[in-house]
Design a protein that fits this description.
The complex is a heterodimer of chains A (154) and B (120).
Chain A (H helix, E strand, L loop, with lengths): L2 H19 L3 E3 L3 E2 L10 E9 L3 E7 L1 H11 L7 H23 L3 E3 L3 E4 L16 E7 L2 E9 L4
Antiparallel strand pairs in A: 1-7, 2-7, 3-4, 3-5, 3-6, 4-8, 7-8
Chain B lengths: L1 E5 L3 H10 L6 E6 L2 H11 L3 E4 L8 H11 L4 E6 L4 H9 L4 E4 L4 H14 L1
Parallel strand pairs in B: 1-2, 1-3, 3-4, 4-5
Helix pairs in contact in B: 2-3
Classes of the chains: A alpha+beta (154), B alpha/beta (120).
């Protein structure tokens, strides 16, 4: 992946938190994920990418992060597994979809696949042939990761 | 004025519902895919539909076409994260009344609804 591609995702993350919560997120220095090291947290939303560019984008965060985000989006909503997983998937979907503006129509996104740490059956969707770059992010006091693995450069 | 909300995310469906509370609208229901949305339009005849694009079963652009076949006066607002101009243009070409890019907030949603309500 080229630097400008990673920056597209950084911009999408920043825009998401500014607009939805009014509280800015901070992104750290993106790094190349080592294959054997897991960055998965409690909830993960995965978006498959197909078309001219193939790969996946996933957002992973802990319950506390997603609970606070849920409170901003739908105040009073219950912190159920379903709601927290839904937010992780929707966040991955929104950030991936926004990136299409630059990456073009050859960048097709799937509906989200969502899983929690206790459910490992869906983790096969995270097997990406390409190198995966990880963007660390912090919102309020919570941390999360956005991981992007794209097989073809544009 | 009757409204149907269509999105595969429960959180988005609920937030749209909550954010429309200050407008004079009746939320007649929600759907999580295009196929169910088409069925609900046929039976409930909403005036306005908010429609996501990337959904299981039937995507939002296909559902838009199906809805306008059975209820041509329905105002379909596409609500999507897909940010390229071609997607928005394709939606408008197929007959969408408006397009909202995710992420969006209450004010942006209300603005689009008010514009449509003025024309009805």
């Amino acid at each position: 992946m080229k630097d400008f591609q990673i920056q597209i995702f950084v911009k999408s993350i920043t825009n998401y938190f500014d607009k939805i919560t009014g509280i800015s997120s901070e992104t750290g220095v993106p790094f190349l994920k080592e294959r054997e090291k897991s960055i998965l947290m409690e909830y993960t939303g995965v978006i498959g990418i197909s078309g001219k560019i193939k790969g996946a984008v996933y957002f992973t965060a802990d319950k506390k992060f997603l609970s606070e985000l849920l409170e901003h989006i739908t105040p009073g909503a219950e912190n159920t597994n379903e709601n927290l997983a839904d937010i992780a998937g929707e966040l991955a979907n929104t950030i991936s979809g926004n990136a299409q503006e630059i990456l073009g129509r050859g960048f097709h996104i799937s509906v989200p696949v969502i899983f929690s740490k206790s459910n490992s059956t869906e983790k096969s969707s995270l097997i990406i042939k390409a190198s995966t770059f990880v963007i660390p992010l912090r919102w309020k006091t919570h941390k999360a990761y956005l991981a992007v693995g794209l097989e073809k450069e544009v | 004025m009757k409204v149907l909300i269509v999105d595969d995310s429960l959180i988005i469906r609920n937030s749209i519902k909550n954010w429309l509370v200050d407008l004079d609208l009746e939320i007649i229901g929600t759907a999580s895919n295009g196929k169910d949305a088409v069925k609900m339009v046929a039976s409930e005849k909403p005036h306005i539909v908010t429609m996501d694009i990337t959904m299981p079963e039937m995507d939002g652009l296909t559902a838009l076409e199906e809805i306008l076949k059975i209820a041509p006066n329905t105002n379909v607002i596409i609500v999507s994260a897909l940010a390229d101009k071609d997607t928005a243009l394709a939606a408008i070409k197929k007959g969408a009344a408006s397009f909202i890019l995710k992420p969006f907030n209450k004010e942006e949603l209300e603005e689009v609804f008010q514009e449509i309500m003025e024309d009805l």
